Amino acid sequence: MTLAQRAMEQLEVWPDLSSGSASCGAGRALRSVHSEIVHFHSDRDVDLHLTAGAIGRFHDDLQESTAIRLVPGSDWVTVHLDCDTDVDLLMSLVSAALKAHQNRPSPAGRTAGGECNFRRVTVLPRG
C-alpha cells in the first residue's frame, strides 16, 4: 500500500469528509460540506486546500518543510509523501484546513479556493 493510499484510508473515516472525484479531473478528492479539501493525484503527491489565511499563519513553517510546495497566490499546498512523517504532517494540515474552512463561507455556485496545484508544482525526489 502506498503512503497516499494509507493517508486516504485514514482520512475517509473522518466524519467531516466524504470522497469523490477531484474537480481538477485528476485523482480522488475528499471534501467537507464547505469545499474540496484534499486531492490525491498520485502515489505520493497530494494537494491540500488550506486557504490563504491558514497558509499565511503557517507560512514560515510550511516553507521550511521539505514535504511542502507552495504556489504563490494559491489557496492550496502540495504535500509530497516520502515517509510516515509526511503522512502525519498531512493529517495535521487536513485538520487545520477543516477548521479554516468552517470559518470561511464558500462563494455561491463554485468551490472556494480556485484550482488546486496539479500541474503547477514540480516535486523532485529528496536526495
Automatic annotation (TrEMBL):
Pfam families: Luciferase. Residues 35-97 form the Luciferase domain. It comes from the Bacteria. This is DUF5519 family protein.
